[in-house]
Amino acid sequence: MNRAFVVALLGAESTGKTTLAGEIGKALSGRGLRVTVAGEALREFCIEHGRTPRRDEQAAIADEQTRRIDVAATDAEIVVADTTALMIAVYSDFVFGDPSLYALAEARQAGCDLTLLTALDLPWLPDGLQRDGAHVREPIDALLRASLARARVAFETISGVGPARLHAALAAIDRGLAVRTRSGPKPPSRGEPGRL
Hints:
Distance between the termini: 18 Å
Radius of gyration: 16 Å
Number of strands: 5
């Protein structure tokens, strides 16, 4: 069996990642594909604990996000990842000044088939504990772009409101699937264990 095609959604807070992940999953399932949306471990941590994670908890959350993607990929044709370990690495750097999670997160990101970066064109909305404010979106976006460049991970920026955002994401996925059909599955990245 070919490994799943992994679509990774990255982006600063309040840029529609979770909504878009669900919409992509529904749209692709409607095409008859086996799709799994790998939910955001950080969001669930904040809800469960009633707080944001400490510095010493960041690595475990990043590992859990990767584990979710790996598990989803065992049965699905397409995995839509509502963030990856790279988001945790960026937040760990931004909040705690700790860049130690980048190396592994970047290697794992390179194992994804398609990286979609959500644009900053949606209005910022509060969402409980996870969101600090609109002022953090540009620095987070800059850290993400720098990390992807460092890891040499190509990405597509997804913008637009409502159906236009979904349409842009699906068009990018269709292009990615077409490339995979021509070139074959992407091998695991940089000798890291697992897929990502």
